[in-house]
Amino acid sequence: MRTTLTLDDDVAKEIRRLSRETNGSFKQAVNAAMRAGIAALASTKRAPRARYRVKPVSLGRPRLPNLDNIAEVLAIAEGEDHV
Question: Fewest C-beta in 10 Å: which of 10, 62, 63, 83?
Fold first, then answer.
């Protein structure tokens, strides 16, 4: 597969050094480095996370009789004279 890859200067320098040391091409060095990095990431196992549990708590009955009518709820909460 052909693709464009932008490397940081320090990474490109190390890839060039690796390709010279192995007498391989730049492409081979990039592929080898990518494979090694992918293998290292895949072998790193994450510690299992503890499950987060929420304990339900009863809040009791609502203090307002009907919460379906927002105008009524605001009138009770703010008072009839609130403007």
Answer: 83
In the numeric block, which tokens belong to residue 79? 């008072």
φ and ψ of 17, to 5 deg: -60, -45
Alpha carbons 75 and 81: distance in angstroms, whole number: 8
State the pTM of this model: 0.51
Per-residue pLDDT of 45-67, as tens digits, reads 777 888 889 999 998 887 777 78
CA distance linking residue 60 with residue 13, whole number of Å: 67
CB atoms inside a 10 Å sphere around CB 18: 16
Angle (nearest 5°) at CA 42 between 3 and 35: 40
